[in-house]
Every structure is written in structure tokens, then in C-alpha cells.
Design a protein that fits this description.
Helices cover about 65% and strands about 10% of the residues.
């Protein structure tokens, strides 16, 4: 994987800005240090000190891409800066940031192992400084522990939180796949049942009817030609119907190969969904705004299901001549889904005005960390509005 594959522009921009701000404050602070503040330190700030400040801050821009190398550079630079007894600066915050990154980006075992070893080294180095340097006080030990262990543990908490969110998204995806699979199995079972009914009951009765017509035609042969012709027509029609019935039974019993491999719906399928609802008699106005692009599968699936469920409710509960408006607004950080109809709305729902479909939509959005609102519209009808966060 190349550098450009690893990097996320938005995260890189934030980290680069963070590094630039810390470096600027460090250089500015170094230039404005009073002589009284410098006195406890054995060295004054010079060109080499500036180089150390740069090495403690600039690599932070790549902390998420090359976590271990950047961590080593910043830590060793900080050790050199403290060992040479240069004046304190805000650039030391780079060490705390890298401890946080260590906990947030690496696995629990690696982050605690590397972080624990580093804390031991830093504490030992600080103890040595307390003994040999007048600028390092005993209180520096407590400060060192707090400024290293706290960011490391905060990073671990963020890592676990990301894991929980990813697990919830994966569960939602698996639940959707299982639901689709159950629906396919239910359809297959129903088709098999219908095929059995057609074959065992309807086809049998039609066979008996056709045989009776043929027998009656032979008995009536030589009588009124119109009776014979009518019986022949009944027999021929019965045989044609039986042939068509066998063909239908064969189709019902064939596996639906297309449905077995059909992918989960995406937002690109919205047009087809809207056309299907229009065919059911609901006038639907579809409006798409913003920078239309492909979103993560779970986001697209949730947005599609929200539109599908909302329009289905409009068909079921909206009453005659209901119309609906669907708006998809692609924002930089979120996708807004708005479905408004002018039907009877909540009056057709359960007693508390909330159906299982509304609960399901709310749960979908909650798993993704978004916002969901549904209820009667001020101007009549029903309104469903979901804001789904979109990862950069």
C-alpha cells in the first residue's frame, strides 16, 4: 500500500495544521523567553534547539500514517532536548500527542507494551535530570507520568470506541443480509407451496374436467353437432390450460438464480424504487442535491431502506390521491434524507402514532451515529427526516 493509499486528506490536513500551530507557538515562545526564565537552564536557545523543536512537531502531520516511526522521532528528540537542558517549550506537547496516537492507532497489546516501556524510559530520564540538572524539579516526575500515561489511556479508549462502532456497523450489515436471506427463503417456500397446490389440486381437477369432456364428446357423437363442437372446445381448452399450468409449476419450482445473487440495494436504485411507487398510484417527486457520490455500503443501504419504508407507509396509510416528495442532500459530512407526504399520516398508524417501520428506521440511524425525526407534518401528512453521518 502506497503513501497516498494510506493517507486520508482530511485527517492529514488536521494533523498538519496541529503541527504547524504547535511549532509556531514553540518558536514564538522561545524567542520571547525572559532572561530570568532561562537562568535555571544550562543552555540558551540556538539553531540546534530550533532544529529539535522542528523534529518534535513537524512529523506529527504523519502520525496516523507512520505511527511508530513518528513516535520514535518525537520521543528521541524530546529526550535530546531535555538532556541538553534547553528551555522548556510547548513543543513537548508533541510527546503527549504521540502517546495518544499510540493508544488510538495500535492494538491494545502493542500500544501498552511500547507505551509502558517508553514511560519507564522517560521516568528514568527525568529522575536522572532531577539528580544532575537544577532546572528539573522533583515535581517533574508527577508531571511526566500524567503527560504520558493519560494520553495513552485516552487513546486506548478512543481505539475501543472505534472498534465498538465498527462492530455495530458490521452487525447491522449482517442483520440486513440475514433479513434478505430469510425473505428469499420465505419467497422460495411460498412458491413451492403454490406449485404443490397448483399441481395437486388445480391440475388434478382440470385433468378430470378434460377427461369428462372427451368422454361426453364420444357419447354425444352423432347427435347435435353444436354439442359435439362445444365439448371438443372444452377438451382442447382444458389441455391447453394443463400445458400452461405445467409450465407455471415448472417456473415456480425453478431456483431464482437472479435473486440468489442480487446485491443489496444502493442509492443508485432509488429511481427504480420511486418508479415502482408511482406505479402503485402515488405521485412521487424525487430531488437529489449536493455532491452525488458513492457512500459506504451501510450508509447507502440505510438511506435506501428509510426512503423505501417511508414511501411504503405513504402507500399503505396515506389514503387516496396521496403524493410524496423525496429529497436526498449529499453534504460534506452527512447525507440528509427527507420524505414528506400529504396523506393521513399518523392517524393510520398505531395508537401511539409509531409503527415498527419507524422504530426500525430510528435504530438504523442511531447505529450510524446520526439523527432521526418522524411525525405528522405541520401542513398535514407525515414527515421523515434522517441525517446520516458520512466518513470522509
Amino acid at each position: 500500500m502506497t503513501f497516498f493509499d494510506k493517507i486520508k486528506p482530511r485527517s492529514f490536513a488536521f494533523d498538519a495544521l496541529l503541527a504547524a500551530v504547535i511549532l509556531t507557538l514553540a518558536l514564538t515562545g522561545t524567542a520571547e523567553i525572559d532572561a530570568d526564565v532561562i537562568t535555571p537552564f544550562t543552555r540558551e536557545s540556538d539553531a540546534f534547539h530550533v532544529a529539535l523543536l522542528v523534529l518534535m512537531t513537524v512529523p506529527i502531520a504523519l502520525r496516523r500514517v507512520y505511527t511508530i516511526p513518528v513516535y520514535v522521532i518525537v520521543l528521541l528528540t524530546w529526550i535530546a532536548d531535555r538532556g541538553l537542558d534547553y528551555p522548556d517549550s510547548i513543543a513537548s506537547a508533541g510527546v503527549g500527542i504521540m502517546f495518544y496516537t499510540l493508544g488510538a492507532e495500535l492494538s491494545r497489546r502493542r500500544s501498552l507494551r511500547i507505551g509502558g516501556a517508553s514511560v519507564a524510559v522517560i521516568v528514568g530520564w527525568t529522575v536522572l535530570g532531577v539528580i544532575t540538572l537544577p532546572s528539573v524539579s522533583t515535581g517533574s516526575l508527577i508531571t511526566t507520568l500524567i503527560s504520558t500515561l493519560t494520553p495513552l489511556l485516552l487513546g486506548r479508549e478512543m481505539h475501543q470506541r472505534r472498534g465498538r462502532v465498527a462492530e455495530l456497523k458490521e452487525r447491522l450489515k449482517r442483520a440486513e443480509i440475514e433479513r434478505e436471506e430469510k425473505a428469499r427463503r420465505a419467497v422460495a417456500d411460498e412458491r413451492a407451496r403454490i406449485a404443490r397446490e397448483l399441481h395437486d389440486v388445480v391440475a388434478h381437477q382440470m385433468t378430470v374436467m378434460t377427461l369428462q369432456a372427451d368422454g361426453a364428446r364420444r357419447i354425444a357423437d352423432g347427435t347435435d353437432p353444436r354439442v359435439v363442437e362445444a365439448l371438443e372446445t372444452i377438451g382442447d381448452t382444458g389441455r391447453e390450460a394443463l400445458a400452461e399450468m405445467r409450465r407455471m409449476v415448472g417456473l415456480l419450482r425453478q431456483p431464482d438464480d437472479e435473486s440468489e445473487t442480487r446485491p443489496l440495494p444502493q442509492l443508485s436504485d432509488i429511481d427504480a424504487l420511486v418508479e415502482g411507487i408511482r406505479a402503485a398510484g402515488v405521485a412521487v417527486d424525487l430531488k437529489i442535491e449536493g455532491d452525488v457520490r458513492r457512500l459506504p455500503e451501510v450508509n447507502e443501504l440505510s438511506a435506501f431502506r428509510i426512503v423505501q419504508e417511508s414511501l411504503t407507509n405513504a402507500v399503505r396509510h396515506g389514503g387516496p390521491d396521496v403524493s410524496a416528495k423525496v429529497t436526498l442532500d449529499y453534504g460534506e459530512e452527512s447525507l440528509d434524507v427527507l420524505v414528506v407526504d400529504d396523506g393521513r399520516g399518523a392517524s393510520a398508524l398505531s395508537e401511539d402514532g409509531v409503527g415498527h417501520g419507524i422504530v426500525g428506521m430510528r435504530e438504523r440511524v442511531a447505529v450510524l451515529g446520526g439523527e432521526f425525526r418522524a411525525g405528522p407534518n405541520a401542513g398535514g401528512g407525515y414527515r421523515v427526516h434522517a441525517t446520516i453521518p458520512v466518513e470522509a
